[in-house]
Design a protein that fits this description.
Shape: globular
Order of helices and strands: HHHHHHHHHHHHHHHHEEH
Number of strands: 2
Radius of gyration: 20 Å
Structural class: mainly alpha
Oligomer: single chain
Amino acid sequence: MEKIAKKYLKIYRDPVQTKDVYTYVDLEDYINKQFEIYISICEGWKDPDIGTYLALIKNPYLLGLSMAFQNNDYELLNNTIYHYSKHRLLNITACGYDHCKYFWRTMDSMACNYKEVIENCYPVELGLCNNGHPFYIVASNLLMSLWYKNQQWLEIAYAAGEKFLGQKKGLWDKAIVAYLMALSNNDMDKATEELSNVCKYSTRIDRPKVYKCFCTEAHGLYQIARYILPEDDFLQIVMPANDNFCKGLISWQREHKYPEKGEFIVHYPDELDVMNHILELPLPKCILLGSGKKRKIDVEQMEKNLIAEFATGKY
């Protein structure tokens, strides 16, 4: 068992450490709790929609991690990340930002090589981001420039990255930006250093301790490099030795030729079956409304598109 598993399970089983998050004893406990939520949905909501289910039925991510680490099951770990990502990405919420909003969800999704996320969350036709949190914009634009190999975009994104690194910003954010810039420079030593820093500084950000044990974002960044770099360059990036990076997962993915979609870790029974159909829906493509720096995600239209897909009865 890797150190990451031991540490995670210790925290997951400590009610003091997990008092602010949703944890479950096992899958049966999880399903029973979701039935209780389902009853409240039926009683308290008139004609609940897709968003209602995705918002109220809890994501089994932390439980999936515990089962995977307990059984040393890397396939389950990969599937847990996939389930976690799909559940979150289908839950379309307003924030007033453009497509830069999707940066963290893209990092999580790429940890299991769910690359469809990039093309759907960052469609090439939307161009670079310019409305949102400064870090989201800088990191997203570097990612888009590298992914679509657009040199004109990269010149803009790189200059913004240099400016960002010269400001008083969070160390975690800076490490991510520096990593993406290192990839653009084909500087594998720097990329190796900054990927380790991503793992290191992820333990210092303000979120429950149980989420700090496994740095999905670092795994996502590592896999992004695999897609955008020549193989010889990619192999020069040394995987972090940090405890919150899971080398066993990378080995499993490599052995199985990096599957780009996983399986859902929960099959919802009986009345909860609607969740199975919702999760099978195709990933919605990001749509923006407005212009210039006022562009923002068109939540209403994206929801309509998702509902129309559901109405076909194929899922």
